Amino acid sequence: MAEDYVAFGEIEPAFARTKELLLPFRRSIWLRIAVIAFFIGGGGANFPSSSWNAGDMPSGLEQAISPYIFLIIAGVIGLILLALLFSVIGAILQFVFVDMIRTGEWRILSHFSPRAGKGVRLLLFEVGLGLLMLLIVAIPVAIIFIVVAGITGGPNISVIVAILAALLILLVLLIPVAIIQMLTIDFVVPVMIREDCGVIAGWRSVYPVLRSEWKQALMYVLVKFVLAIATWILQLIAMVIAMIIIGIAGGIIVLAAHFALGSLLLDAVLAAPFVLAALVALLITAVPVITFHRYFGLLVLGRLAPQYALLP
User: Fold this and answer.
1) Is residue 275 part of a domain?
2) Which band of pLDDT confidence, cut at 50, 70 and 90, is reported for residue 230?
3) Which residue range(s) make up the domain with 97?
4) 3-state class (DSSP) for residue 140
5) Is this prediction's pTM over 0.85?
6) Distance of CA 197 to the CA centre of its chain
7) What pLDDT sits at residue 141?
8) Which of 5, 80, 122, 224 could be stapled to 91 by a disulfide with Cβ–Cβ 3.0 to 4.6 Å?
9) Long-range contacts of range 301-307, CB-CB < 8 Å, 24 or more positions apart?
10) Domains identified in the chain, total number
11) CA–CA separation, 282 vs 276, rounded Å?
């Protein structure tokens, strides 16, 4: 039964291609993919915001921060712009990674500029998808808040009910949104490269394939989910081993220097290379994982729709 589904049949070929690319070890390829992993392999967090006024602040805090308010605003704007730049680069590198895999030309900069426009379109699509999800959450939550507030005659219970409703709706929406995001990266991005089109046009080409092969698409999603968990566990094990090795080596040197000289500044200087090595190790452990998943998606797409096959 399993052999009837493309997703099962392409696991071994994806693993074989990953092994062929990464072994024997070639530093230039590993480092380039590690750079890509830095931008596309990480996750983001949305922190809740609240409305503040002078009465919300602890006594004396407003006077303490008022001389630095413009500096704080500039810092916040700077962080927002930095996050935006990071997101744009990550979206562009989604296309660069596919280009490098399909052409065998492992030069990030030579692929980066031609794919900048498509990367920006991909980011706008992802932002639009996020805003749509928030809108779908906000409308029923607002209605629930108004109804409950009218029944109870106060905002306290209605706020609690609205928060619970928002969390429940978010949990329900996260699954389809995550699937759309995954299919966009795995299938639509390669189609955008093949047909030289935008995200919406790419989805118009991919959707008929998914609709006609809906069982294959459903199995791909399920297999991809299981593979994501399995590879994440393997990556976590590799990360822990690397952290233990680097931590022991760095700890011995830093502690020896501290007991000998007792300088916190020297401790920080000596620890810095080991911290950097730990960050590099974290990215290196992600290289086989993102490479395997990229090959897997491209191989499955090539089987489901041979006209969009990008791999030789």
Assistant:
1) yes
2) very high
3) 8-41+58-308
4) helix
5) no
6) 23
7) 81
8) 122
9) 301/186, 301/187, 301/190, 301/191, 303/6, 303/9, 303/10, 304/6, 304/209, 304/213, 304/216, 304/217, 305/206, 305/209, 307/194
10) 1
11) 10
